[in-house]
Write a structure and sequence with these properties.
- The chain is an alpha/beta fold.
- Among the domains are: 101 residues, Glutaredoxin (3-Layer(aba) Sandwich), CATH 3.40.30.10; 141 residues, 3-Layer(aba) Sandwich (Glutaredoxin).
- Helix content is 38%, strand content 18%.
- The strands form 3 sheets. It has a 6-stranded mixed sheet.
- α1 packs antiparallel against α14.
- The relative contact order is 0.15.
């Protein structure tokens, strides 16, 4: 009989998304002497300079700053040097935005909404005339963006399409995603499991419960990215028989859809008559179902349960245990670090912002030191 197991991401070595937001230093309340006032004014002046720089950058992009939870690297700068390697040699769909220093807020909103499903890049038309010539882009005639669909280099070169706005670009890019999930009924579960455990390395059976016949684009993207480690099956409007095939009782027919279940053996080393537990993605613990949260969930399951899988699980190989090939891809927009057995998935940091924060801290420490010396 299957049971539902929740994964607490705050203990037990499971990964968590760290979004430590820098807080401005709080100055001590006291009377300042002349030297302290000079240092304070110097710091305040530098702070005003930083505000002016940020304001100027805001005018150049024509977009307000992202909220803290949105500060992932969602739109990548594309140049002559990296276009072929990053865009054309990548199977994933790409939306390329052409700009001349300004960009509408609609592109930022779309980037956040499609994070992980498609890639977004931006080309500055004023700085990359040679690249525009190479890809036959005419600023006077072509649209604001270009969509390079899912597929290899030659397919992208032949099948790209222009898009005039974020919504058209999003639809074209998502439409190109292949569906590598397997729609199943209860009778298909045994063949599905055999396929999982006969792979090399063994793959986790992951079951998606939905109420729509079309596979959501998020699940399509996840099935493509994790196909080496997870086999995605999908039940649409699961029946009592479907739940029984998974070992779930009638009381389990209460999942909030869509639901994500990963089947794992009840104990390591099970070969014959394998019984499973279902590791459920619980939104009340892990947050809404989105790319970064599910990414965190799948890293946690692989890290904890890979050595439980029958067949060639390759849990003794670091590149499989840590899914290093996925880390290499996702490091473009996330920082994914392993410390011992614990994985941390954090947002990409703005290096300029980090320098500003460090400078402010240094100035604050100097003021505190001067205050202590005076006392």
């Amino acid at each position: 009989m299957l049971c539902s197991v929740g994964i607490p991401f705050t203990s037990g070595g499971f990964p968590k998304i760290v979004t430590n937001h820098a807080k401005p230093p709080v100055l001590p309340v006291k009377r300042f002497d002349a030297n302290e006032i000079k240092m304070f004014l110097l710091t305040f002046y530098l702070f005003l300079c930083l505000i002016c720089v940020n304001a100027q950058q805001g005018q150049e992009t024509d977009t307000p700053e992202f909220a803290p939870e949105e500060k992932f690297l969602d739109i990548l700068p594309i140049t002559q040097e990296n276009f072929t390697d990053v865009v054309l040699n990548c199977n994933d769909p790409w939306i390329i935005i052409f700009h001349d220093g300004t960009m509408s807020m609609g592109w930022k909103k779309m980037a956040v909404g499609t994070r992980g499903v498609v890639w977004l890049g931006m080309i500055d038309k004023t700085l990359n005339p040679e690249l525009l010539s190479d890809i036959n882009y005419n600023p006077a005639k072509d649209g604001e963006s270009r969509v390079y669909p899912y597929g290899g280099t030659q397919h992208k070169k032949k099948k790209w399409v222009s898009a005039k706005n974020p919504n058209d670009a999003k639809i074209a890019a998502i439409k190109s995603l292949p569906d590598q999930t397997l729609r199943m009924k209860g009778k298909d579960i045994q063949d599905f499991l055999v396929e999982c455990f006969s792979s090399s390395p063994s793959r986790f059976p992951i079951v998606l419960l939905t109420d729509t016949p079309d596979t959501p684009s998020l699940f399509k993207a996840l099935a493509i990215r994790f196909r080496k480690y997870y086999n995605f099956g999908r039940f649409v409007d699961a029946t009592i028989e479907d739940f029984r095939s998974l070992g779930l009782g009638l009381e389990d027919d209460t999942f909030e859809l869509p639901a994500i279940l990963v089947l794992v053996p009840q104990r390591p080393g099970m070969i014959e008559e394998i019984a499973f537990n279902a590791v459920e993605y619980r939104t009340n613990i892990m947050g809404v179902i989105n790319y970064s949260n599910v990414l965190q969930f799948l890293f946690a399951v692989n890290n904890k349960y890979r050595y439980w899988l029958p067949g060639s699980n390759m849990s003794n190989r670091r590149e499989v245990a840590e899914m290093e090939d996925i880390i290499e891809i996702e490091n473009r927009r996330f920082d994914i670090l392993f410390e011992g057995k614990k994985a941390k998935i954090t947002k990409k940091k703005d290096e300029n912002q980090e320098e500003q924060i460090m400078f402010a801290k240094e100035q604050h420490e100097k003021i505190q030191k001067m205050s202590k010396e005076e006392l």
